[in-house]
Design brief:
4-stranded mixed sheet; 715 residues; alpha/beta; 4-stranded antiparallel sheet
Amino acid sequence: MKKLLSYSIVLFVLVIVLLLIIPLPEALVDVAIIFNISLSMMILVTTMTIREPLEFSVFPSILLVTTLYRLGINVSTTRNILTNGGSSGQVIKAFGDFILQGNVVVGLVIYLIIVLMQFLVITKGAERVAEVAARFTLDAMPGKQMAIDADLSSGLINEQQAKERREKIQREADFYGSMDGATKIVKGDSVMSLITTAINLIGGVIIGVIQSGSTLDQVFITYSIATVGDGLVGQIPSLLISTATGMIVTRAVSEGSLNEDVSKQFLAQPYAIMIAGIATAVISIIPGMPILQMGIVSVILVTGGYYLVKRIKEEPTAALAMQMGAGPGMAGMPGAMMPPGEEEPPAKPVSEEEFYKDVNNVYNLLTVEPIEMEFGYSLIPLADESVGGRLISRIVIFRRQYAQDMGLVVPSIKLRDSSALSTNEYCIRIKGEEVARGELLIDYFLALEPENPEKIIDGIETIEPAYGIPSRWIRPEDRERAELYGYTVIDPLSVMVTHLSEVIRQHAYELLTRQEVVHLIENTKKTAPELVDEAFPNLISYGFFQRILTSLLKEGVPIKDMETIIETMIDTLQETGIPVKDMDGVTERIRVALKRTITRLYCEDGSMKVITLDGELERTMAGSVNKGESGYYMALSPDIIQSLIRQLSEQIRKFNGFSQNPVVLTSQVMRVHFYRLVEPFYPNVRVLSFNEIASNVQIQSVGSLRLESAGMRQG
């Protein structure tokens, strides 16, 4: 039975073919006609409720099958009309009597109007729309493919999503191509309906006069009823299918079902509704117009439009209060907005006094958010999605990309407005304390100055907040001119997101909590359960592992390859030569194991530009390493430290023209000690050892740090 159902469409098409050959009794013809009308209604409703045409991608084939089915019914009804004295079932007779109502001429005119309306308006329009849609879809394919490749390269989508989008584009092209051909079938069906009507009427009258011997008037009335009835039972399903065809090819830019789109878009224009009501009232003053009916319509339109205007004005305030919360400058309790997918804070009472009567709510004040971002009033539109703000979506994209790059999931970011800031300022806090602040001019663009600009463009001088680059706020109309002069032009939202992302990168090690470490371990356990069971918690404690990961993140080393990190830790701690508490020794071994990852971060075109240490300097540094209670430390004289920092400052400038961070290359023994020496002064300088660089990379020294004598320092 199940196998038979899988071939139901095949059997249905075979039955249609038989309709063209085998005569059907009137009862079966009635059943076929009723099923045809029901099927057409079902198809029309389906095209109106789908959100996009590809949800009903089988429509071109269904269109062909239903047209063939309708033609088969026409053949059967025509055979019955011509052979049974104008009789072909109760459905056809009922339609014919209802339309004619005793007046043959009026009935035929109404029927012809229906046929011509379908043929000249709906079918012809649907055919043209399908033809244009097919051509435009094919023309747009290369651009859509390039957009997908660009999104894939920038990390906005992954390979699987790119594959799905490419398949969808191909399916769209195939669908609209099929629809272009399918509309020709609808057009042909309309033409065939007119031919069938003429055959039924003319042929029936001739046969009736010759064979029955009745008068011409009686024969004409009999066959007129049958012709109009037969034409209507064919034209009504054909009209429904033609309308469905027009529906599906005109839904190219829809965002929801037809009902949703019409409701949303019409109700979003209340003033148009009110103007239409006023115009209706004006028209009612024309003499002879039905004032009562037009007055009712006018009042309904004006009242409905006024209600919609009032509701639309209230919605942004309510939405902003729900999303951003009320800051000190707003009524109500302070609120926050989370990125999509995050749990929103519970609704709070309007009265602050009533809210804090519950002692549990007071404890909520003790919670410290991992990351917070506060805005001045003018910057709220960047985060408010109800007015087109895209800050939240950009944060979501950054979170996904950072997780893919570094192996750490950035926690939720609490966004709020603040009256303590000026209108154009924003502030970034890590664990409740401010770590960065910036200022944006929302109606301007930020132009980053090149080293040697061709011309200086007019603008408000400032400093780019993320990297400290001299910049200018310029007007939007000056953007193209600034780019011609060599400036890099950035929109305000990108400035804010870039600053936020750099702050998160710099403080990522502070965001790695013990709970997050447990999550990372549990995630690794899905793919390497034996490895995790061997390491935790017997051999490695969660606290020790957290300190290792924190040390790696602080120096910008990704922790995504968790299996390699855990394996190296196990091997290192099981060796007798390395104490369990020697975190530096374990970390250095892990860095060597991750050398391909580290090399990739600072390698450009197969080469890495570095600053090296003079041999005498390394020997002096090695001799100054002492052992204390908390481990080994380097005790250099203040003069040497001052000299090293000054030299490093000069060498770092050489990296301004390069795309990589400044890198200092040392021996493995001295790497961690030198990093701790320079990190307070230059946190973005990366200190690597020779063992952390892959063998296939060419090292280019752009400068060297030396041990300067007293005479050299004085000179």
